[in-house]
Amino acid sequence: EAQVTQNPRYLITVTGKKLTVTCSQNMNHEYMSWYRQDPGLGLRQIYYSMNVEVTDKGDVPEGYKVSRKEKRNFPLILESPSPNQTSLYFCASSFSRTGGQPQHFGDGTRLSIL
Amino acid sequence: AQKITQTQPGMFVQEKEAVTLDCTYDTSDPSYGLFWYKQPSSGEMIFLIYQGSYDQQNATEGRYSLNFQKARKSANLVISASQLGDSAMYFCAMNREYGNKLVFGAGTILRVKS
Asked: Among A35, A85, B34, B62, which is least packed by CB within 10 angstroms?
């Protein structure tokens, strides 16, 4: 089954404790992306990757890091989480040529930073 | 820069009736794509329908249709014969033809009444 898998689904942690949210896709997609969802703001792109070792900032990259060492994996790293990073996070993937290709989303990771 | 506006924070519709969710967009790109996603209370993002800016006909997918009015820069979602399972948050989004980044609106919560 084609899917994007995020882990963990839920996490409550404390300010300053480094955490990583993993994302893996099994569709051989070149493009992967992270979004955060906040009430009244919809989803906003954090970082994206066009292929292995190619990453770039989205609209709200502050406080986040990413890496793309393998095509299927695109982890999101919060080196020193703060309460304003409490949010619902989505990983998404697609082929690089868009046309009408919808992005496939993971089921989301709900992070609470205390 | 691209922008999506969803002016209806919440909508109610009676079961079996049709409902229109509004979406207007702003872009200077000559070619772009428009998407609608559904987010049920469980949180996942479900792709519903896509419209390309050069598509002559309005897109349809089962009970979903996209009322695309290019001159007015609107891309409204029409759900026919509403069902209780249609109760969810609905997001309008757009991207560039040669870019994968999705820009989302703030969303509209739809509640279907029995």
From this structure: B62
